[in-house]
Amino acid sequence: MQGFILKITRAKNEDIIVNILTKKHLYTLYRFYGARHSILNLGYKIDFEIEYSTKAYLPRLRNITHLGYNWLFESQRVILWQQFIQRFFEHLKDLYELEEFYFDILNESAAIWGEQNPKRVAIEKYTTILKKEGRLHRDLNCFICHQKIEKNLSLARGFLPSHSECIHSDILPQKGIEYLFEENSTLFLEDIYVDKLWNIIMQGF
Q1: Distance (Å, whole) CA 91 – CA 27
Q2: Where in the chain do CATH 2.40.50.140 domains reside?
Q3: For the chain, which end, N or C, has fewer CB atoms within 10 Å of the first or last residue's CB respectively?
Q4: What is the CATH number of domain 1-99?
Q5: One pLDDT digit (tens) per residue for the chain, 205 residues
Q6: Is this prediction's pTM over 0.90?
């Protein structure tokens, strides 16, 4: 089966515990001497098998093949990808069974990560996640004062809309945010605002 490595934890000696997102599950697997294997890296997409044993606390990760992307040779893109992956794990870590949606989001993101501005890809995919989970507030009512936002729009963690004065944060271009929320597109957002939205995502999903 195929999956994305969302977290790697050192165990005893050179063994590791690996959290892998597949189409339907978030697996926690054990790999003996896994620290020696360069193909086991945060964010990598792999093909693998699972070995179950009644004697082991965790199932074992076996027969691993790295399914790489060309952009993995670009260190800055890799750093951003791993940061995005870490937010994914924090969001899903308490789950075991999942909808295919989350795997598909990562699969689609990885496919275009090397062709587009990675921060824009992450923002657009994150907006898609918020819509899917019913957490995107397209009405643009301030979550602090509960008034309609006509000007001085800001976004808090989870892209919660607010007045900039209510959360003491930077003003964002309202038309650009409205287009993002409706069309999942950063087309009308300049890079300076893309950076600000990326920083909001880094606070957590």
Answers
A1: 14
A2: 1-99
A3: N
A4: 2.40.50.140
A5: 999 999 999 988 888 999 999 999 999 999 987 667 778 999 999 999 999 987 778 999 999 999 999 999 999 999 999 999 999 999 999 999 999 999 999 999 999 999 999 999 999 999 999 999 999 999 999 999 999 999 999 999 999 999 999 999 999 999 999 999 999 999 999 999 999 999 999 999 9
A6: yes
